[in-house]
Amino acid sequence: MNFFSLLDLIGTFVFAISGTIAAGEKRLDLFGAAFIGFVTAIGGGTLRDMMIGISPVSWTSSMAYLYVIILAVIITFFLKEQIFRFRRTIFLFDTIGIGVFTIIGVEKALANGINTPVAIIMGILTAVAGGVIRDTLNNEVPQIFKKEIYATACFAGAVVYILLKRFGIQTEANQVATILIIIGIRVISVKQQLGLPRMDFRAQ
Amino acid sequence: MNFFSLLDLIGTFVFAISGTIAAGEKRLDLFGAAFIGFVTAIGGGTLRDMMIGISPVSWTSSMAYLYVIILAVIITFFLKEQIFRFRRTIFLFDTIGIGVFTIIGVEKALANGINTPVAIIMGILTAVAGGVIRDTLNNEVPQIFKKEIYATACFAGAVVYILLKRFGIQTEANQVATILIIIGIRVISVKQQLGLPRMDFRAQ
Amino acid sequence: MNFFSLLDLIGTFVFAISGTIAAGEKRLDLFGAAFIGFVTAIGGGTLRDMMIGISPVSWTSSMAYLYVIILAVIITFFLKEQIFRFRRTIFLFDTIGIGVFTIIGVEKALANGINTPVAIIMGILTAVAGGVIRDTLNNEVPQIFKKEIYATACFAGAVVYILLKRFGIQTEANQVATILIIIGIRVISVKQQLGLPRMDFRAQ
């Protein structure tokens, strides 16, 4: 297993934690937590695979994802206090996770003959759809539709990744650069409380 | 590009507007609006393609859909007042859109070996699923489950389309007839405030 | 048609009833009821098929499912009182339904080269995803995330089924044993008001 695959598993782990925490906020039971933890972690990649025609979907062929998710759900379920203590670390790895997921989404799309603009969308979708499904199952409007520059960071990362790839930059260097850009944009936007402009179409 | 393809793009455009407006009612940010606009426009066709086995899903192979959706989101986001002024026109093109989407859904299903009753369902699904996903992401019970004869118009249109096709009517004439029937049913039901019978299973 | 296929159709019928009842609790119209009844009945199998690559998805190739679902929706819509009178019978057949759906999910996954742990997940998903989609469309947190040992019964059933299969038990005997175990676990958990431990991550 190379370093990028390790980051992928860490991203999966942290996404499953975020799903389990969200389930806990609604006082769900262990199954609800496991279900939401699971779909948060694999939802984006699953949707991408179903849309571009990779079947069976990627996570089903490796046991590693499954075990990492189960581990994340159990740890979060039983070690609530510790999870909260590590929330800065979790935030960091969550951001690394969206970087890794964006890159994987772009690469899988391109490898399956998808054109570049749609591949960028598939990268973003891989990173954000799990969280969208998590919040929807939890009966909330998805958080990323309302705050911080989360998807925008994925978009910027996907564009940079494809540009550097075209310039012939070596894959590992490109991965690191892309992830650093996504981390940079997200950390700055959270610290500065930057967000995208919001709409207001409420009935007047 | 023939006239029917043009109507398809206009339908896509108007569906994306309706998604963006819905996002605005929840005060979402630009990304949330783009996401919901996007899935409203391509959600029905995507679900249909994944269910009948067209991969990659149709919208990914043509850039036209993507650009039309982005245009619709940007216009709606920045020209709120104008959008409201054109709401009758939007309603008309939305209705043309569900007609076109119904026909495309029926045709793609039949072309992929799906039997007639299921092809009718695929036609309806292509037309309505985007709106269902839009409202679900927006944390609302889908509007079309509660008011006006929206899906019923698609159902009637799909049945008429298949019958006329069997009678050997020329495709373009059939498309026009089907869309006119869908427009007719919807406009009359909205004007007369007709709706389907509603259930009431609330705890007594 | 063998006895197992009959149970599958009865399960489909009862799932569609549960979807229609849920729609009635939100005062939806006939189309809303039909839509939710439909996705409750076929949602789990559809998701499973899309994830493991069966296309078109299974229910589209047999008219029986479609007719059974339409029948269930119409009966529930017009015979509300009678439906409530039979609620114990419905509960029993709902439980038989999740047993049948779990077995079908496991078998289809294994037949498509999915490994055993993921096949167990596909069995659970086939049984529970329809209900999850039903509640999500109805703008509720899925019931099975909060009460009784529903998914756990499917999990136990899937494990038992695979074990007995490995021990070379004849398929029909294995099906009966698996369904009885799922019924047993669910009935006992409902009677004893057993549930899984719940989380509580609400902000303090």
TrEMBL record, chains A, B, C:
GO cellular component, one term: plasma membrane
Membrane spanning stretches: 6-23, 30-47, 59-79, 91-111, 117-137, 149-167, 173-189
Superkingdom of origin organism: Bacteria
Key words, A-Z: Cell membrane, Membrane, Transmembrane, Transmembrane helix
UniProt membrane topology term: Multi-pass membrane protein
Domain Glycine transporter as annotated: residue spans: 6-80, 92-165
Subcellular location: Cell membrane
Family of this protein: Belongs to the UPF0126 family.
Listed name of the protein: Putative membrane protein YeiH
Protein species of origin: Acetobacteroides hydrogenigenes
The organism's taxonomic lineage, starting at the top: Bacteria, Pseudomonadati, Bacteroidota, Bacteroidia, Bacteroidales
